[in-house]
Amino acid sequence: MSKLLHTVTVTVALLLCLSAAAQSQFVSTSIPRTQPQGEFSVFSSITKYLAAGDVVSLSSWFADNLDVTVLSTSRNCSKKQAREILRSFFASNTPRSFQVTHRASEANKKYLIGLLNAGGELFQVTIYATSNGQDTYRIQQLSISRQAAAY
After folding, report:
1. If DSSP codes are grouped into helix, strand and coil, which group holds residue 32?
2. Per-residue pLDDT for 5 more than 60?
3. Which single residue of 19, 63, 88, 104 has CA 20 to 30 Å from 56?
4. For residue 82, which of 72, 70, 100, 93 has the smallest C-alpha distance?
5. According to the model, what pLDDT value does residue 149 have?
6. DSSP H or E stretch at residue 84
7. Which residues face 144 on adjacent strands?
8. Which candidate, 122, 100, 123, places its Cα nearest to that of 113?
9. CB atoms within 10 A of CB 97
10. pLDDT reading at 105 higher than 60
11. What is the DSSP secondary structure assignment for residue 54, as one 8-state letter?
């Protein structure tokens, strides 16, 4: 009887561990992390920061001055001002996920369009980044607009 009780206890403990691991796997993947490869690897960090609403890390990719459009407000602003605009947006719209829908590039320019699920709404995010000829890209334009409902 003692061996049977030990076997049952170990089995239950193992099932609990597997269940906890499965739940943590689910939680960690609830924010999809788009990891573009190759020529679009510049966007792997950017998409991760968008999905998490990590404005501080995202702003490290900003050019010194950039065009920012959030909903219906557009402005050319400094890196610091852009950070505050996005901080305000994410305070009102907690991100849940980000999915890349389109990527394109040409010489020293990269474009990304994606869907941000935040605050119970879908937003289209468009990013335009340029390089000064090296592998370092900076975001020149960032636009967030409400996604029209699909019927």
Report:
1. coil
2. no
3. 104
4. 70
5. 62
6. helix 79-92
7. 70, 125
8. 100
9. 18
10. yes
11. -
The model carries a pTM of: 0.70
User: Helix (H, G, I), strand (E, B), or coil: what is residue 147?
Assistant: coil
Q: CB-based contacts of 76: which residues, under 8 Å, 6+ apart?
A: 65, 66, 67, 68
From the list 57, 53, 41, the residue with the least C-alpha distance to 136 is 41
Residue with the two structure tokens 């065009």: 67
Over residues 92-121, mean pLDDT: 93
Identify whether the C-beta of residue 101 lies closer than 8 Å to the C-beta of residue 112: no
Contacts of 8 (CB under 8 A, 6+ apart): none
Query: Can you give the pLDDT at residue 82?
Result: 97
Residues in CB range of 74: below 8 A, 6 or more apart: 67, 68
What values do phi and psi take at 24, rounded to 5? -65, -35
Cα(44)–Cα(54) distance, rounded to whole angstroms? 14
Give per-residue pLDDT as tens, 17-35: 333 333 333 332 233 333 3
Q: What is the dihedral of CA 94, 100, 104, 107, to 10 degrees?
A: 50
Tokens encoding 87: 């901080």
